[in-house]
Amino acid sequence: MIIRFIGGGRELGGNCVEITSNNESILLDVGMPIEKNYSEEITFRDTYAGILISHTHMDHYLRMEFLKDKKVNVYISDPMKDIFEANEIFLNERILNYKSFLLYESEEVEIGDFKITPYLQDHSSFDSRGFLIEVEGKKVFYTGDFRFHGRKSSRKENLISKLKEKDIDVLITDGTNISNNKINITEYSIQKKIMQEIKNTNGLVTVNFSSQNIDRIVSIYKASRKNNRTFIIDLYTAYLLMKLSKYAKLPNPLTYSHLRVYYPQNQICKVIKNHNSKILNLFREKSIYLDEVILEPNKYVFQIRPSFIEEVEKLTPTLNIYSMWEGYLEKEEYNKFKSHYVGNGISFKIIHTSGHISKTELKEFIEQVKPKKIFIIHTNSDLGEMSFSNVFYPENGFQIEI
Ligand SMILES: [Zn+2]
Ligand SMILES: [Zn+2]
After folding, report:
1. Residues 6+ apart with CB under 8 A from 76
2. How far is the CA of 71 from the centre of ligand 1 (A)?
3. What is the rounded average pLDDT of the residues 142-149?
4. Distance 360 CA to ligand 1 centre (A)
5. CA distance 374 to 142
6. What fold is seen in the domain 187-350?
7. Minimal CA–CA distance to 239: which of 263, 269, 275?
8. Which of 147, 213, 214, 219 is CA-nearest to residue 183?
9. What separation in Å is there between the alpha carbon of 223 and the centre of ligand 2?
10. pLDDT for 196-205, tens place per residue?
11. pLDDT tens-digit profile of 30-63?
12. Cα gap 295→311, rounded to integer Å
């Protein structure tokens, strides 16, 4: 078996790992790098026996359009399919011109010589997976992006005990936090902090978060509800929540109280342009106009994005809670957004926890699983802070025979 690191080597995101047996190759993710120029040439093979997508963050799938074989089999789960379909409508992404095969928890899938077992992972994207790959008598575990401090932290014991049993030859792991000493606070603490901030605020609270971070949406919803406020989400978020509510107990805007839906103009346009106008009728009874919010600002927590900041200018929030990756604040869109808020005397607070495992927990995980070789990717660090002799920080293009 040969492992080749195509993307994610000494870079943040952009994961793409190729595994080749005597007969065929598979890909683990095919992501877009977050910080580098994605147009740099990638040497994909002409075809693959299958492509496994760990989750629906773009740094794990969006380079699919550069594959030579447009009919390749792509393995995703039911919820991932729903998210991709929503993204196609609201974000104009066209990536599912591929035949998709569904993945079910712990159910083995055979792709040519490869035996694959998907494991549900705790991450800031709904239904994220790690993959156990067994081929030619060797066992590889690919973590995808993962952590142990979100709403699925109880997966930890189960994952470790299953991997211990398997005697893993190669671990390919998320190393986002390898070069910092951040202690990740839990998602439950985030919920408490948000609840407290809302409690201390007299006036409207606005929030920024990723619509795919369902853990966080649940936290904000619960924090709002505890303060007897209604959480106003945009159409895209409402659509995602409705779709994903069939897989888990989530605040479904069609059936839950303290949840209303705002229809931003740009989202209405996208839905109409993509011939999905019927979506506009779904949440009619739960829809809200700005005038209602202006009349009673103390009653609401309002989701805001830079993309529709201008049309909600007549709102006068007291506090904005920024609840997503701090790196976005350095990019133009959120930088301008923050300056606009701060310039208008609106309090701007960051309340967030990483979607990725901390260095300390990763070290513990490795110590327990005891893989023979460890490849740390999804990090721009190559400092080798891990004090194990069998840890590697592969560069893109690096390949190794196992
Ligand atoms: Zn990632
Ligand atoms: Zn991710």
Report:
1. 53, 84, 100, 101, 102, 103
2. 25
3. 97
4. 19
5. 10
6. Rossmann fold (3.40.50)
7. 263
8. 147
9. 24
10. 999 999 999 9
11. 998 887 666 566 789 999 999 999 999 999 998 8
12. 17
- For residue 144, the CA-to-ligand 2 centroid distance in Å is 8
Q: Name the closest ligand to CA 176.
A: 1
Look-up of token digits 């998907």: 118
Fold of 2-180+355-401: Metallo-beta-lactamase; Chain A (3.60.15)
Q: How confident is the model at residue 214 (pLDDT cuts 50, 70, 90)?
A: very high
What are the domain boundaries of the chain?
Answer: 2-180+355-401, 187-350
Q: How far is the CA of 221 from the centre of ligand 2 (A)?
A: 22
The rounded Å distance from CA 109 to ligand 1 centre is 23
Could you report the per-residue pLDDT of 264-305, keeping only the tens digit for each? 999 999 999 888 899 999 999 999 999 999 999 999 999 999
Find the ligand nearest to 126 CA: 2
Ion ligand 2 — residues with CB < 5 Å: 57, 145
Q: Ligand 1 centroid to 127 CA: how many Å? A: 14
